[in-house]
Hints:
This protein is an alpha+beta fold.
Amino acid sequence: xxxxxxxxxxxxxxxxxxxxxxxxxxxxxxxxxxxxxxxxxxxxxxxxxxxxxxxxxxxxxxxxxxxxxxxxxxxxxxxxxxxxxxxxxxxxxxxxxxxxxxxxxxxxxxxxxxxxxxxxxxxxxxxxxxxxxxxxxxxxxxxxxxxxxxxxxxxxxxxxxxxxxxxxxxxxxxxxxxxxxxxxxxxxxxxxxxxxxxxxxxxxxxxxxxxxxxxxxxxxxxxxxxxxxxxxxxxxxxxxxxxxxxxxxxxxxxxxxxxxxxxxxxxxxxxxxxxxxxxxxxxxxxxxxxxxxxxxxxxxxxxxxxxxxxxxxxxxxxxxxxxxxxxxxxxxxxxxxxxxxxxxxxxxxxxxxxxxxxxxxxxxxxxxxxxxxxxxxxxxxxxxxxxxxxxxxxxxxxxxxxxxxxxxxxxxxxxxxxxxxxxxxxxxxxxxxxxxxxxxxxxxxxxxxxxxxxxxxxxxxxxxxxxxxxxxxxxxxxxxxxxxxxxxxxxxxxxxxxxxxxxxxxxxxxxxxxxxxxxxxxxxxxxxxxxxxxxxxxxxxxxxxxxxxxxxxxxx
Length: 556
């Protein structure tokens, strides 16, 4: 019996049909995978409207992965769980409910089958503080008015009242803190307020009856107060606005760290002195609740621009001296989401803008090569977020991390290489040349088993949002770190940092000479950004100093 072959046309038609079926099957499988994946993702809140309401008002939550029906899922409002009757509707991307009477001010979180969402701050107007008529105790600070009653990060606010003190000294303006959300969706324990920052130039003026202050990075909607040595004032509600994006400060680790400087091999006679400028843990929204457990000896000055000044007097030949500090503090991870279309123009009158767009000894942003390259990279782009990303991508692609420190931005650009501080300083210089406020950060990266390595990264400032972290070294893949494969180092470290970055200085720390004939020394190998670290005077003829590496005593 003979074998019959199908005509060529039929074979071609069957082949075409087979080829057509394969993409369709692939799409079906892909859609199924995406559907299963989306169903297993935790809920995400994108917005709440309104975010300030009264008991009984309808609040609409928009986002994703809420689930098509409630089926046991629920919302918490500052830890309060509404009754079933409070829910008006529930959909995968929209929930509406009436604000229950017991819900005050706190985080709104959606709890679903696959975990808890991010937390978004809301407030119940029925629980907002009422401005009292006068202080309750003699000398207690009293806030009579805050103008305006709302503002974004970096905006200027004027506080009027009395008993603030003729000069600020150690007094503070306290805002509510944009705290993170713990794994169970509840607000973590720890401080719930944040002070305006000297280091960010938030304080503009201070008198006994009036304070001008900028809304600090990390500030959130909630109560505002003035704290002096006479106590804390009455609280006034202040709404932190701004739609540039969201910043999540979460997953804190508690670090116990020790640091020391040893001085030996001394040759001295008569009257002599040695001053040591020793860095300390840098207070910031992501580094909080800093406590000094021990130090030896007592410092001459406890805080001069972020460092402590110790004075060793009349050292003797052959003697051995030391300075030590031991801190415990909480370090948080930082996660930012920015909508570039909502980035606003800078307030160019602010001290922060002036300081962090200017050139200095470390960041030579006025160098011709820097100005030329920055202009070429940004061209006519007005958006600072987009400018920063363009410079980040250019640096990752064109400048290599290599050995010896150059200490000069133009040299780093010419050679297309430098050590980690050179690379970071060059990135910051390009940002400043493009009128984007930025600063280098020096500190340590905690590695496996608690070991540390000196490390440098950067921050740039967005008006109405705050500081955005950027780790160019880790983002370039020059140092491998544990990271979710889906995140990708390049994208993750532009805007986010983990909780293993310990900061000891942000921007150049100007340490001023204390004696007319003092002999200053800079220790560039230390993980901080000081003009100098030591100053010898009098008949101190020779000595050797050893600046120890940071020791992580414990992680909790």
